[in-house]
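Need residues for this backbone.
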């Protein structure tokens, strides 16, 4: 991927994407029911600023919010760069 630009959403952008999905789902309670999780889990995702991959895939399929806009930055980077390697302590929340 030499010279390619990789888009990694900021924490604020990831939370905005989750909020968009919640809105499309009819509010946090209705959204959490459709996702099969508690509304407390949704609040936890918002607090940490990313959604677990399996839930991001479900959100993408159900609410048409791209999973790449929801997942952890480290995971997004790894998925975008097939030969990416990480060193301990080099994680950054972009």
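Answer:
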């Amino acid at each position: 991927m030499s010279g390619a630009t990789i888009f990694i959403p900021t924490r604020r952008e990831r939370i905005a994407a989750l909020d968009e999905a919640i809105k499309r789902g009819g509010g946090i309670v209705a959204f959490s029911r459709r996702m099969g999780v508690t509304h407390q889990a949704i609040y936890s995702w918002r607090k940490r600023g990313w959604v677990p991959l399996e839930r991001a895939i479900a959100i993408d399929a159900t609410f048409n919010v791209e999973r790449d806009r929801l997942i952890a930055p480290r995971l997004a980077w790894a998925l975008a760069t097939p030969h990416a390697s990480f060193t301990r302590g080099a994680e950054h929340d972009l």
